[in-house]
Design a protein that fits this description.
By secondary structure, the protein is mostly helical. The protein has helices at about 15-45, 50, 55-75, 80-95, 95-105, 105-130, 140-165, 180-195, 225-255, 260-285, 290-310, 315-325, 330-340, 345-350, 360-370, 375-380, 380-400, and strands spanning about 1-5, 5. The protein is globular.
Length: about 400
Amino acid sequence: MKKKGIALVERQYLFPFVLITSLFFLWGFAHAILDVLNKHFQELLTITRTHSAMIQATMYMGYFIMAIPAGLFINRHGYRKGVVLGLLLYGIGSLLFIPGQYIASFNMFLFSLFVIGCGLTFLETAANPYVTELGARETAASRLNFAQSFNGLGCIFAPILTGLLLFSDEDKGASGNVALPYAVMGVIVLLAALAFMRVRLPEIPHEEEVDSEGHRVGLWAHKLFVFGLVALFAYEVSEISINSFFINYVTEVGWMNARDASLVLSFGGLGLFMVGRFVGSWIMRRVRAEKMLFWCATGTVITTLLVILDLGSVSFVALLCGYAFEAIMFPTIFALSLKGLGSHTKRASSFLMMSPVGGAVGPVLMGLVGDHADMHWAFVVPFVGYVVVWFYARHMMQQKN
C-alpha cells in the first residue's frame, strides 16, 4: 500500500488503523438503514414523504448539535475516549428502538435516531481525522478513502437485512419488527465499546501554526478549509437526499416493488459506492486527490441531470452510476480540508462533522418537491449540491497548478 515509495499507513500505526477502520462499517450500517426506514414508515404509518424525511432530519440534527461538543471533548480527552463515548451513545440509541416498537410511537423512534446521531458524531469526529494522521500527508486522502470503503460495506448490508425484514415479498405494504435490526446492532456496538475501553490508541501530536511574524494562525483564516466545509455540506445534501428517496423513485416509476428496490439499492447503488471507494483509493495513490475529485464531481453532475430529464432506463442507469462517482467525495473533501491545519485539526474536524446536517436539510427539500411534482424533478436538490462540489474541486485543482 504505497504511493511513490510512501507507505499508505506507517508501520507503528497499523494496528490502530485496523481498529479504527472497523468502526467505519458500524456507522455505514447506521446510515444506510435509514433509507429503508424512510419507505417503511411511509407505508406503516401512512405519512407523507416530507413527514418521513424527519427520520433523516432528526438523526442528522444530532451531528449539527453535537459536533462542537464532540470536538471539545476529543480535544481534551483524546481520540480513544471520544470513540468509546460515541459507541455508548450509538448502542443506547439502538436499544431505545425496543420501547419505541412496543408503544408504536414515531416520535420515540425519532428520539432514538437522534441519540444514535449524537453517538455517530463522536465516532466520526474522532475517526476521520485520526485516520488522516496515521501516515504521510500525501496519502491522507487515499488512506481515508480506503478506511471509508468499509463504511460502504456496512451500507450494503443494511438495506439487504432490513429490507428483507420490513417489506413483504409482494406489494403488500410494510411488515416486520423494526426494533430487531437495531437491537442486534445495539448489542454489537456496546461490545465494541467494551473492546475500545481496553485498548490504547496513540495520540498524534500537532505543531502550532504561525505566520511569518510569529503570530498564531486562526482556523477561519484558512480559506480552503472554509470552502471545504461548504462543499462537504453540499455533498451531504446530495448524497443523503438521493439515498432517502431512491426506493420512492424506482417504485413510483414502476420498475419494481419496495422489497426489490431495497436489494437494488444494496447491490446496485451502494455496491457501486463501495467499489468506487476501493478503486478511488487505489487511483489516488497515483493521481492527485484534487484531480480525482474534479472528474468524479463532473460525473455526478451529469448523472443527476440525466435523472432530472426522466429518460427512462437511461435515467435509472445514471442514478446507479452516480453512486460510483460520489463514492470518494466525503473522505477526499474531508482530507483536503484538514490539510495543513496543524493544531487546529481536531477542532476543524468537529466543524466538518457539522456538515451532515445537510442530511437534515436535503431530504426535507427533496420530499417537498416530490410531494408537489414528479419524483424526477426532486433530483434538482442533489443536482445543485453536486454543482457546488464541482466548483470546489475545480478551485482545488487550480490551486495545485
